[in-house]
């Protein structure tokens, strides 16, 4: 069986989506510190430019290119990928990190909302991989990172679109891990737990969710996000260097993964009980 040597960061170009904040921002900083040149992609031009300026100031030797793109727009994704490939015929690393969330039961979200999540969380990474694979495999030792989620390990009620997209990305990653091995390209699937990022602020709530439940759902989602994104980024880059096939970040991902393995059908009931108990404890503490 083919065994890949450790990934070499220095002197190679890395493409990172969702680079304007959170995990993507810290992955970009970590890559620059390891000697990589960067192509950073995000839809938020102001935040993206600020990230790029901080990286340039901290790492003057790093080449940092920024691209503003709405990954919900299929044509924009293809244009972005083709432009990257034209300017960078060989890249070392592609990190598909950008993602969005949508709360609400399946019957509470519209088809347009569901498809918006799938477009950004699954279709965009798939298109980027497809168009950039020749560049990723142009030189030996390339690597692909797809950031799935805790909800690519378990599928709780109220996360039909998000879990569907993250399970799909997980499945694609696992297929590619086997298919790309002989060509010398490694694949890492990342399953973050509750990472302290802006995803709660940018999350949408399904149009059919009652108004009195919107704030409650957003607060509950935000309360789960406690793990530092800089630590998550370091764990991802360590996984890339070691060519790990899967990286689970934080106990909030590792414990549910274990329960899902031990109790393939009944794990969600137990997780729901534990989550409800934790929520009651948090509310009691806040009331004191």
From TrEMBL:
Q: What are the residue boundaries of the Ketoreductase domain, all occurrences included?
A: 12-198
Which SMART domains does the protein's record reference? PKS_KR
- InterPro entries recorded for this chain? KR_dom, NAD(P)-bd_dom_sf, Sc_DH/Rdtase_CS, SDR_fam
Q: Which SUPFAM superfamilies match?
A: NAD(P)-binding Rossmann-fold domains
GO MF terms here are: oxidoreductase activity
Q: Which Pfam families match?
A: adh_short (PF00106)
- The reply to whether Ligase figures as a keyword in the UniProt entry is no
Q: Which GO terms describe its cellular component?
A: membrane
Ordered alphabetically, the record's keywords are: Oxidoreductase
Q: Which family does it belong to?
A: Belongs to the short-chain dehydrogenases/reductases (SDR) family.
State what protein this is by name: Short-subunit dehydrogenase
Provide the species name: Actinoplanes digitatis
């Amino acid at each position: 069986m083919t065994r890949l040597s450790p990934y070499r960061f220095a002197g190679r170009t890395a493409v990172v989506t969702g680079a304007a904040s959170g995990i993507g921002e810290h992955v970009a900083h970590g890559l620059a510190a390891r000697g990589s040149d960067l192509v950073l992609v995000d839809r938020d031009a102001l935040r993206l430019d600020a990230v790029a300026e901080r990286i340039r100031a901290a790492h003057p030797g790093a080449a940092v290119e920024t691209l503003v793109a709405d990954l919900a727009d299929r044509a924009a994704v293809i244009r972005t990928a083709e432009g990257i490939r034209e300017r960078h015929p060989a890249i070392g690393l592609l990190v598909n990190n950008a993602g969005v969330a949508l709360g609400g039961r399946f019957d509470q979200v519209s088809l347009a909302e569901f498809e918006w999540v799938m477009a950004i969380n699954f279709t965009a990474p798939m298109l980027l991989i497809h168009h950039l694979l020749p560049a990723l495999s142009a030189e030996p030792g390339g690597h692909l990172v797809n950031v799935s989620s805790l909800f690519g390990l378990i599928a709780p009620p109220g996360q039909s679109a998000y879990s569907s997209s993250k399970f799909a990305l997980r499945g694609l990653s696992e297929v590619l891990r086997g298919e790309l091995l002989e060509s010398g390209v490694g694949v890492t699937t990342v399953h973050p737990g509750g990472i302290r990022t802006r995803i709660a602020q940018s999350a949408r709530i399904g149009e059919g969710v009652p108004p009195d439940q919107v704030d409650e759902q957003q607060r509950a989602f935000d309360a789960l996000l406690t793990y530092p994104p800089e630590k998550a980024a370091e764990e991802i880059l360590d996984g890339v260097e070691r060519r790990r096939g899967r990286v689970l970040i934080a106990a909030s991902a590792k414990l549910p993964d274990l329960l899902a393995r031990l109790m393939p059908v009944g794990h969600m009931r137990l997780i729901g009980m534990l989550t409800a108990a934790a929520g009651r404890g948090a509310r009691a503490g806040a009331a004191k």
